[in-house]
Amino acid sequence: MRHCRGAEQLGSEDSQSAPVAAGKDRELSIAVWLKQNRPVAVQRPAPPTLPGRRLKVLHLLATMPVGGAEDLVAAIVRGLDPQRFRAAVATLGPPGPVGLELGARGYEVVSLGLDIKRTSTWGVVGAVRRLLKAGRPDILHTHLYHPNLYGRLGSLGLGLTGVVAAVHNSYTRVKFHRRVWNFLLGWASDRVLVGSAQVWHDVRRYDGVPASRLLLMPYGIPLAELDTRLSRKEAREWLGLSEGGLVIGAVGRLEEQKGHAHLLAALPDLQRQIPALVVLLVGEGRRQEDLRRQVRELGLESSVRFLGTRRDLTEIYRALDLFVHPSLWEGLPLALLKAMGAGLPVVATRVSGCQEAIEDGVNGYLVAPGDPEALARAILELHRHPEAQRRLGDAARRTVVARYSLEAMLQRLEELYLDLWRRGNPI
Fold first, then answer.
1. What is the DSSP letter of 52?
2. The pTM is what?
3. Which residue of 27, 159, 319, 388 could cross-link 235, Cys pair, CB 3.0 to 4.6 Å?
């Protein structure tokens, strides 16, 4: 049996962490039940015991389109030590392009084939529970809201060695029912992982998750994958671009969160001062038609190119002069880290993980979110000072090498998985 904290300690530690459940007797009753049935292990040094077999780690996502969280999970699955871990992926819906890529490389990828918008909550939970019973993973690692919800509910009472939930975004728009579920299911999680300090504070404040269960684990990127043999001239020729002018790139889903509309609003003034300006927008999403309409209305057709979803970011980064990340809210954006790792000077908004990775004027520029004029000023400043581009780009690369390498993240993640196994299998 797993060693537990005393109920008195748990109650005193977290009695002030449940603002969303105050006055809700039924929800508090559920929380008490979860507390009793999913206690936290005693905080003591773990013995150096290792399992005599590979631990099975199952990552659960809704689907795996090309995106930051999905690419991160793929990098984790590929990077975990195969001598100690057997990594697998399950998706609630279709596997998506990234899931198919993993499957083609020989990794276990299971799709439940559900339409979570049309399937009841308990129907999805039942399907996840059957999957967990059949596959019996040692560690269940869920990502993003719906997999975190259904995965943790489906795991209740199964006695898994560890349940880990990952929150990838800050809470700009907090929905009450999500706060309630996240608070209750905080008791069904051994750890809740966050990639930035802002997300840590949001989960602590809005969801009432105890600090003892929260773990800040900054993302890591595979630096070796950012190397390319193409020169900048060759990369631009490959994309059909001329050698002169200023080439700006932005990578991210075409959604309101990513702030592309504000970048486009900054371009008319820039276009007047930089006639050979080219802006590459990489990604797809629900705002694509709105953004294309905005380009037409602003007369930017000659400057803006929509490249869609791409898997050749390394070559695209090589073609750029600078990278812009105009998000309105974020977690810790992998596209930004990759651009920094590629040695590009970056202009980003002062939100969540962006302002944690970037020190304004040292390894990039930070501007207020939703401010096209500030974006234009920062871009123009870099265009006029090539030496600043080189200085900021070099500093950005050094920042990623020192703080955001995939190897460092994988080491911490492997230690977490093994620690959960040890606590569930005490000597």
1. S
2. 0.82
3. 319
